[in-house]
Amino acid sequence: MDQSQAPILRALSRYQSDGQLSYTPPGHKQARGADPRVRAVLGDAAFAADVLAIGGLDDHQESRQVLVQAEELMAEAVHARLTFFSTCGSSLSVKAAMLSVAGPQEKLLIGRDAHKSVVAGLILSGVSPVWVEPQWDAERRLAHPPSQRAFEAAFAAHPEARGALVTSPTPYGACADLAGIAEVCHRRGRPLIVDEAWGAHLPFHPDLPTWAMDAGADVCVTSIHKMGSGLEQGSVFHLGGDLIDPAVLASRADLLGTTSPSVLIYTGLDG
Q1: Are β-strands 219-223 and 192-195 bridged in parallel, bridged antiparallel, or unpaired?
Q2: Same domain, yes or no: 21 and 121
Q3: How many structural domains compose the chain?
Q4: Rounded to a whole number, what is the distance in angstroms from the first to the last CA of the chain?
Q5: Which residue in 2, 43, 164, 224 could disulfide with 230, CB within 3.0 to 4.6 Å?
Q6: Residue 260 counted as domain residue
Q7: What are 153-167's pLDDT values in tens digits?
Q8: Cα(229)–Cα(201) distance, rounded to whole angstroms?
Q9: Pair (27, 118) in one structural domain
Q10: How many CB atoms lie within 10 A of CB 123?
C-alpha cells in the first residue's frame, strides 16, 4: 500500500472545501457558532477539524471506506493483521481487549503493575485476575515487567486461565520479554494482550525494543497520543494471529463505545 496516503485528512479537506453544514453536534458548526474570543485564541482550524464521522465524511450507514482505508494503512505500517481506531485513550481499548479474551468468573493472568484501567475493566467485566508479580530492581528502585518464568508458573497454577495481559513498556520505560511470554501463552492456545500504551514509537526504528505485534502478541493496545503524534486521547488496538475472532473484538469495543464506526464495517457487522 502507498503509505503516503492520508484518507481521513483528504476527506476532511474535501468536507471543508465543500462548505458543508451538519445538523448534528458539535454545536459550534465549524467555528460559525464559537465565541469570537475563543476563536482568537484557538483559531478556526481547530473547529473546522472538530467533526463527527457523519454523512459527507464517513459513517457505518453510508460509508465511503475512509476510516477502513486508514486502518488498513496503519495495520500494514506496523505489521498487524487488523487495526482498530479508538477514542478515550487506551483505557477503554484495553477493556475491550480483556472482554474479548475472558468473561465473568473466568481467569486472566495479569501483571500486577497494570494500569488502573485494567482494574476498572475487571470490575466492569467480572473477570477474575490472577496477579503475576513484577521483577523488583533494587538498584534502580523500580519494577520491571513480570518475567516469562513468572507467567509460566502462573499458568501451571491456573491452567484454566483464558489468557494473559502484560504492560510493556512500563511508565518507566522497561520492556517485557514479549516473545517469551507469547510463547508461554501460545503453547497453551491462549492469547496474549499487551498494554503497550507507551510504545507507539517502537515499530518504527530497528534499535528500539521489539514491539508487541512483531513479538507475537494477539492484541496490542497503543496510545498514539503519548509517544506518537496523535491528538489527545487517540488510541489504536491491533490484532494479530488467529486466537481472537476480530468480530468478537469489534463487538466488545462497540459495547464500550470505544471504536470508530468503520470497525463494524470492517468485520462485516452492519449495526
Answers
A1: parallel
A2: no
A3: 2
A4: 29
A5: 224
A6: yes
A7: 999 999 999 999 999
A8: 9
A9: no
A10: 8
